[in-house]
Amino acid sequence: MNIIVKMIFGSHLYGTHTDRSDRDYKGICLPILPECVLGRIPKAITTHTRSGPGKNSADDVDTEFFSLQYFMTLAINGEMIVIDMLHAPRETLVESSATWGQLQANRSKFYSKNLAGYLRYVREQTAKYSIKGSRLKALEDLLSVLNSFDESERLLVAWESLPINEYCFYIENPKETRWRHYQCCGKQLDETISIATAKKMIQIHYNRYGERAQIAKRNEGIDWKAVSHAFRAGLQLKEIYSTGDLHYPLKDAKFIRDVKVGAYHYMNDGLGEKLDSMLIEIEELAAKSSFPDRVDSSWSDTFVLNQYNL
Prior knowledge:
This protein has helices at 11-14, 33-37, 68-76, 80-85, 98-105, 116-129, 133-146, 195-218, 224-243, 253-260, 271-288, 298-307, and strands spanning 2-9, 23-30, 44-48, 61-67, 93-95, 168-171, 181-184, 187-190. The protein has 310 residues and is an alpha+beta fold. α6 packs across α9 and α6 runs antiparallel to α11. The longest helix has 24 residues, at 195-218.
């Protein structure tokens, strides 16, 4: 491989690692021209040291190299993993190159009002772990609308009647699919499913909120690692929209690490409400930012071609 960069990644990059954290490495490689011509460019090359079942231990190492072409695709789409890589400080780099220096110096070209990977993750995790009453009300309002239509009909029949509020909205051309999508409290529905299926999905989601409220009250059975990831991604996104950049280790690393090890009481410390407030603030910051609505892919196309002197 023609290695462009290899870096320390994950919790050791963020500054949120503990004694039990494994080692992650990410990198970028430049495929040789014959591979490109023959259409044999791998998206990624991954290696793991763990051979048996179960979770990684502190002794395990995961390494993943993206082809430059695939890395650019992910960057244009605002995926978390590559935006994180673009901000890796020099001391985390195991191998580097002039190409990486040029790419990192132009990282702001991949900022947009819709850093889709980050926003999608934060929205999904916030919806999953929030127990806010207004979310329950949003689900109830949607169920009320769905109950007014024949269950055998497709959702598109009720499309214009679906509620629009803080947690329920239409999604513009998700993942370039041909079907329209609607989201309520993190649950996505496309127009082709039946009313009966939509009702079942939303009712299950609604019931889980009740269970989640009891779990939060007892402070038991909470996936603290997932909650910490939600806060981490949200705080990273907030920093990008507030300052136009992102620095590691994260300034909120101690808080994120404390969440990960379960040092807080989910309900008493209001973590669900904090997630909700953070998401609202992020969306407001994104809307007010000077970033473009979408990333212009022309710069990245030219950059890749230049690596082959084309």
